């Protein structure tokens, strides 16, 4: 065993999208940077989340859209080619090899150390490598934690022996289970229920809340997604809690799920999609006075607030600001610029939309749920607006009435909602639900981020006939309220 010591300007622990991006930005700022990773470069998103899950879902969405097109319905009415879908998923996940990611890291001049990294003191990190060596690192300017999150599991007796699926198994399985129980009602739950039902599983969803699916979004989003899932054949059960899970032997035996109401259900596999936990338990946080296993709370420059002297940063899911890949990459770009500026002794621009502050995390987080129908949202929802005391005008429109939607699909069902600040007319939030609405989201994100008013949006003309014409219909609905006769 060898013990080696090295010094870098910046040490990054974790090489998912956020870690890779902050390393790229600090290196571009002229700082010597090293990345530590004990799994695959590219992290959860590349291998067990965004990329493989969307590869599973894309054929499902394409077939659903084709079935709504007159003249094409019969041609698209057969089953999916499951081996082809899984093979495409494997390709998108690079067959769980990270050679391309390693090549990219080398191309931008960032060093890589394979192994498990943990803090050992102020600006100190020790890496245990796969061959048993220890590499001791010192950071001249900053240590960045980008270790992400893992799947949360319930505290149920004997759960380990059941070998439940988490999001990792759900996105990487090489076989389609005959029966699949999905526990949860959030994004991972609805997406994986959509994918595996279409691939041939008999899917049952067990959702603890009576409020419905996608509880953090507008209520109509969860209602329309639940309707779509049920029409596809998914058994969606609300207000249902799991109290025990057992698996019959041998290893591939049947899973028995006992519910709080005294009933039970059985399946070949069970997926728990009930949330995420920070991967900080083995990070050595106790050596710098923090609690292992906690989220790393940060300020708007991504600097960990509980650590004196400002040398520790956290980007991506691990800081709990916005658990989405694109927001983690956004944070990484900002944090990289911040670290570079501080290293050069420059004054930071931390104004609301300044170069060194993650304002979008607070007001303009975009999200797409890849189900049938799709859900796309950014900014405030009506419930969030009420919670933070914002007075808003709610403008709704049936997307199915838009000419572009009728061209897109026969019998198009969908809803658009725009929230406006009552005093200024600024767009504060937008939610779209319907086939193909994910491609509308960037325009909504620009409107919220740029604090665009409805008066200015009136001059942004959507092309006809596209689904984006829903923007015009929302604006007309808002304007007509001011001119309509009293009811």
From TrEMBL:
Disulfide bonds, paired cysteine numbers: 45-50
Per the UniProt record, one Pfam family is: Pyr_redox_2
For activity, the cofactor(s) needed are: FAD
Under Gene Ontology molecular function, one entry of this record is: dihydrolipoyl dehydrogenase (NADH) activity
User: Is Flavoprotein given among the entry's keywords?
Assistant: yes
Q: Which InterPro entries match?
A: Class-I_Pyr_Nuc-Dis_Oxidored, FAD/NAD-bd_sf, FAD/NAD-binding_dom, FAD/NAD-linked_Rdtase_dimer_sf, Pyr_nuc-diS_OxRdtase, Pyr_nucl-diS_OxRdtase_dimer
- Sequence ranges assigned to domain FAD/NAD(P)-binding in this UniProt record: 8-327
Residues binding FAD, per UniProt: 54, 117, 317
Kindly list the positions annotated as binding NAD(+): 184-191, 275
Sorted alphabetically, the keyword list is: FAD, Flavoprotein, NAD, Nucleotide-binding
Indicate the family of this protein. Answer: Belongs to the class-I pyridine nucleotide-disulfide oxidoreductase family.
Q: Which PANTHER family match?
A: DIHYDROLIPOYL DEHYDROGENASE, MITOCHONDRIAL, DISULFIDE OXIDOREDUCTASE
Q: What name goes with this protein? A: NAD(P)/FAD-dependent oxidoreductase
Which organism was this protein described from? Streptomyces argyrophylli
């Amino acid at each position: 065993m060898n013990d080696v010591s090295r010094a870098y300007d910046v040490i990054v622990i974790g090489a998912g999208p956020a870690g890779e991006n902050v390393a790229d930005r600090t290196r571009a700022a002229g700082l010597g940077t090293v990345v530590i990773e004990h799994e695959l470069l590219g992290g959860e998103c590349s291998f067990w989340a965004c990329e493989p899950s969307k590869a599973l879902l894309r054929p499902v969405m394409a077939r659903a859209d084709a079935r709504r097109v007159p003249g094409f319905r019969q041609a698209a009415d057969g089953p999916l080619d499951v081996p082809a879908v899984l093979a495409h998923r494997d390709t998108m996940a690079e067959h769980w090899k990270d050679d391309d990611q390693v090549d990219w890291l080398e191309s931008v001049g960032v060093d890589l150390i394979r192994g498990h990294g943990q803090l050992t003191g102020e600006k100190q990190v020790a890496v245990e490598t796969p061959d048993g060596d220890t590499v001791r690192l010192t950071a001249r300017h900053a240590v960045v934690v980008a270790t992400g999150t893992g799947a949360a599991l319930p505290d149920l007796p004997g759960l380990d022996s059941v070998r439940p699926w988490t999001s990792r198994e759900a996105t990487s399985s090489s076989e389609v289970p005959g029966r699949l129980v999905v526990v949860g009602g959030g994004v991972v739950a609805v997406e994986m229920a959509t994918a595996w039902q279409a691939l041939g599983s008999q899917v049952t969803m067990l959702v603890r809340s009576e409020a419905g699916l996608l509880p953090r979004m507008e209520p109509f989003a969860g209602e329309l997604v639940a309707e779509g899932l049920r029409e596809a054949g998914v058994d969606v059960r609300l207000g249902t809690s799991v109290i025990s899970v057992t698996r019959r032997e041998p290893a591939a035996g049947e899973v028995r799920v006992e519910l709080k109401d005294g009933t039970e259900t059985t399946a070949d596999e069970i997926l728990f999609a009930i949330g995420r936990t920070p991967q900080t338990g083995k990070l050595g946080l106790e050596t710098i006075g923090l609690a292992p296993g906690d989220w790393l709370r940060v300020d708007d420059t991504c600097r960990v607030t509980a650590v004196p002297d400002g040398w520790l940063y956290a980007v991506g899911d691990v800081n709990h600001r916005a658990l989405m890949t694109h927001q983690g990459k956004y944070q990484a770009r900002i944090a990289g610029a911040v670290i570079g500026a501080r290293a050069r002794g420059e004054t930071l621009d931390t104004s609301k939309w300044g170069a060194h502050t993650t304002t979008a995390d607070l007001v303009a987080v975009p999200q797409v749920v890849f189900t049938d129908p799709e859900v796309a949202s950014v900014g405030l929802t009506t419930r969030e607006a009420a919670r933070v005391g914002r007075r808003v005008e709610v403008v709704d429109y049936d997307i199915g009435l838009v000419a572009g939607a009728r061209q897109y699909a026969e019998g198009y069902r969908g809803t658009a909602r725009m929230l406006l600040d009552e005093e200024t007319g600024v767009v504060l939030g937008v939610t779209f639900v319907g086939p193909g609405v994910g491609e509308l989201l960037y325009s909504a994100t620009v409107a919220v981020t740029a604090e665009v008013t409805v008066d200015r949006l009136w001059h942004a003309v959507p092309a006809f006939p596209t689904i984006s014409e829903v923007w015009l219909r929302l604006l007309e609905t808002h304007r007509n309220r001011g001119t309509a006769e009293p009811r």
